[in-house]
């Protein structure tokens, strides 16, 4: 079924199966092919103001924060994010809402007719499909989340109104390099001459600023041009004439500060009252998301050392409230499991390991071997997240918090388990 070219009357599932098999590789770096197809169907001559959002972690929460702040002022906004948790439709939002399957099918039909013999990866197809939908809906602003790196990512074919880098850490080392300087240089590829480039990382590699200076980007840097200070009951954000205090947001304060700075630079920040009420109501699925009050259960997409360090701060908050910490972890095989576990182990009271499904999934036994030796004997392994939850949830006491983390796939499994 998936080898036969779908049509406009085919289902979105048929199209996605087809797209998965169009290109022999999941990832192929380079912009020539995707730019050629975009030009074939005139996707790049759009009046929308496009903000590119790159970074190792925090892209999704930064984009969601900016989206909310633009929508509350009445702007029309298209947002592209990946990967999705449950449904492909989550990747493209118009004014905060997912689109019906047929909209995606129509976009894929347009791309299929326009690509000729050019091969595209699944992600490239999705990126061009999103751009086609944003053009069709004629949104004022597009928030485009960069997939991998920046310089050679499919999203980088656009001409941005501004570029944002959230954080820089080691991930996808086989593509981006094994130092923060190499990763930073790749991510800085989304900068443009005389265009705002906002960087939220707290220890910015010199390669980022060197490249920005070399091309004449308008650099706005954390700890130099804008600041955020965590407070006991919230955060303080400072940029130019802004000096504001907020109660604790549900998303990382660093990403809030980066989003606010980008919008302030573009003169797109709402008034203070709207700013506060919108931030207070902001929730992002899968980012330290509470699934249950009794028993107390959270899930988080953390899958690299930097995101694990942020997760550790949330676990320390729970420890300080008197909770024991039980962790259920399931990750992909190409992630740095040992480093992630090392960031968390000192605050975790007990571990449980589960396997994910799919070609990149890590086995529960390999997850177990990444734990410290003194923890392995007492740690149970399960064939899936749901199989683990069937056993450990009935055992959980009121003084224990369960955290399910390690991948977008892990979070998706946890959310679907709860929905059942």
TrEMBL record:
- In which family does this protein belong, per the annotation? Belongs to the folylpolyglutamate synthase family.
Q: Does the keyword tRNA processing apply?
A: no
Could you tell me which pathway this protein works in? Cofactor biosynthesis; tetrahydrofolate biosynthesis; 7,8-dihydrofolate from 2-amino-4-hydroxy-6-hydroxymethyl-7,8-dihydropteridine diphosphate and 4-aminobenzoate: step 2/2; Cofactor biosynthesis; tetrahydrofolylpolyglutamate biosynthesis
A Pfam family hit: Mur_ligase_C
* Catalysed reactions listed for this entry: 10-formyltetrahydrofolyl-(gamma-L-Glu)(n) + L-glutamate + ATP = 10-formyltetrahydrofolyl-(gamma-L-Glu)(n+1) + ADP + phosphate + H(+); (6R)-5,10-methylenetetrahydrofolyl-(gamma-L-Glu)(n) + L-glutamate + ATP = (6R)-5,10-methylenetetrahydrofolyl-(gamma-L-Glu)(n+1) + ADP + phosphate + H(+); (6S)-5,6,7,8-tetrahydrofolyl-(gamma-L-Glu)(n) + L-glutamate + ATP = (6S)-5,6,7,8-tetrahydrofolyl-(gamma-L-Glu)(n+1) + ADP + phosphate + H(+); 7,8-dihydropteroate + L-glutamate + ATP = 7,8-dihydrofolate + ADP + phosphate + H(+)
Recite the UniProt keywords alphabetically: ATP-binding, Folate biosynthesis, Ligase, Magnesium, Metal-binding, Nucleotide-binding
Span of domain Mur ligase C-terminal: 286-408
Spell out the PANTHER family in the cross-references: DIHYDROFOLATE SYNTHETASE-RELATED (PTHR11136:SF0), FOLYLPOLYGLUTAMATE SYNTHASE-RELATED (PTHR11136)
Reported function = Functions in two distinct reactions of the de novo folate biosynthetic pathway. Catalyzes the addition of a glutamate residue to dihydropteroate (7,8-dihydropteroate or H2Pte) to form dihydrofolate (7,8-dihydrofolate monoglutamate or H2Pte-Glu). Also catalyzes successive additions of L-glutamate to tetrahydrofolate or 10-formyltetrahydrofolate or 5,10-methylenetetrahydrofolate, leading to folylpolyglutamate derivatives.
Q: Which organism is it from?
A: Pseudoalteromonas luteoviolacea DSM 6061
Q: Name one GO biological process term.
A: folic acid biosynthetic process
What is the protein name stated in its UniProt record? Dihydrofolate synthase/folylpolyglutamate synthase
The UniProt record lists the Mur ligase central domain at: 53-194
